[in-house]
Design goal:
Number of strands: 4
Shape: rod-shaped
Order of helices and strands: HHHHEEHEHHE
């Protein structure tokens, strides 16, 4: 995963967390709105129901008062009729033609005008009193109706005030809930932002550390590559120098070898001449001396250097020291070097020389050709 993809993944996780938080709080706010709407609907329905009850109760009370008014009206009509009938009965106690007689005037009834007038006045007063009572009752009933309407309005007003107070309480509760919820939503989103900012910083530091490690590794690899290049160049130069040195040493060795070969050839030719003269002297000595020296010609070693002493008697190998007249050029540089270290620069006895040669043959440092060359260089010859 690339760095950009890692940043994008973290950003998507942050947005997902914020969306989930917003969805949760928005759901709470929607439910609160639904609750407030349900409360408002309930209060409206309750107010409407109560108003309907109040209206019905008022209508019932008004209807009762109207019935009372009708009853009072009937009572009045009944009282007026009774009063009129009493008047008619009074002025015509025989009654069948009372109304007709009344219409014809008092003079026809046979009563005095004064008595009839009093009866009429009584009837009118009774009727007036009944009407006064009717009007008073109607007034009371109308006032009762007005009071019923007023009570209805008062109840409705009180109910409206109560509903308004409940609505205000619900509005305050809803406002407080919405405010607290949005505040919590803001705080939660801020916490999410802070958390993901910390995650971003952690990721940024991690990526920077990874880059730093990668850069350190890259620089180390570059340095190692440069060191390897320098090492290879140095080794190549050293190899070149070593090869040059080896070539020079080989040249010097070849030159020395050629010189030693030339010197060896010269020494060999000189040795052969001396050897021939030595044999001549030996034979000459042997001829003059007769057979007195029984060991003179029997297997003795003869040295040709200045330090060589002639063996006498049967102990011809004791007390004789040999020195090389030249450095023998053996079959290899290792053989030559080894023999030079073993022989040293001092004269050797025949026993010492024989021991060195035997050791060289045993450990493979010398071969038979090398032995012959050593004998020649030291002037040793086995007599026949």
């Amino acid at each position: 995963m690339t760095d950009a993809e890692r940043y994008e993944k973290l950003a998507n996780e942050r947005q997902t967390a914020i969306n989930q938080s917003n969805n949760m709080y928005n759901d709470l706010l929607n439910k609160n709105t639904q609750y407030s709407q349900s409360v408002d609907s309930y209060l409206k329905n309750y107010q409407q129901t109560q108003n309907d009850i109040y209206d019905k109760q008022t209508a019932f009370n008004v209807e009762l008062q109207n019935q009372n008014k009708e009853r009072a009206e009937r009572e009045f009509q009944k009282e007026a009729t009774a009063s009129k009938n009493a008047y008619y009965d009074f002025i015509n106690p025989y009654g069948v033609q009372a109304e007709i007689q009344a219409e014809n005037g008092l003079n026809r009834a046979g009563y005095s005008e004064t008595v009839k007038s009093q009866a009429w006045t009584t009837q009118q007063n009774r009727t007036a009193q009944a009407r006064a009572l009717l009007n008073d009752a109607k007034l009371q009933f109308d006032n009762a109706i007005k009071e019923a309407y007023l009570n209805n309005d008062t109840l409705k007003a009180e109910l409206a005030l109560k509903i308004l107070d409940q609505k205000q309480q619900e509005a305050l509760r809803s406002f407080t809930y919405i405010s607290d919820t949005k505040q919590n939503q803001l705080g939660n989103n801020q916490n999410l932002d802070a958390d993901y900012n910390n995650r971003y910083n952690t990721l940024y530091n991690q990526i920077e550390q990874e880059k730093a490690r990668a850069e350190a590794i890259r620089q180390w690899e570059v340095e190692m590559k440069e060191q390897q290049r320098q090492y290879d160049a140095n080794m190549k130069e050293k190899q070149k120098q070593w090869e040059a040195e080896m070539k020079e040493k080989q040249r010097q060795y070849d030159t020395t070898l050629a010189y030693q070969k030339e010197q060896a050839k010269k020494a060999e030719r000189q040795w052969e001449k001396e050897y021939a003269l030595s044999r001549a002297k030996v034979y000459s000595t042997g001829s003059s001396g007769g057979s007195g020296g029984s060991g003179g010609s029997g297997g003795a070693y003869i040295g040709l250097s200045d330090t060589t002493t002639k063996p006498t008697g049967n102990n011809n190998t004791k007390g004789v020291l040999y020195s090389a007249t030249y450095s023998p050029l053996l079959s290899s540089m290792q053989s030559s070097s080894w023999f030079a270290q073993q022989a040293g620069s001092q004269p050797l006895s025949s026993t010492q020389l024989a021991t060195i040669i035997a050791n060289g043959l045993n450990n493979g440092k010398l071969n038979q050709s090398d032995v012959s060359k050593i004998y020649k260089a030291y002037g040793v010859k086995l007599a026949n």
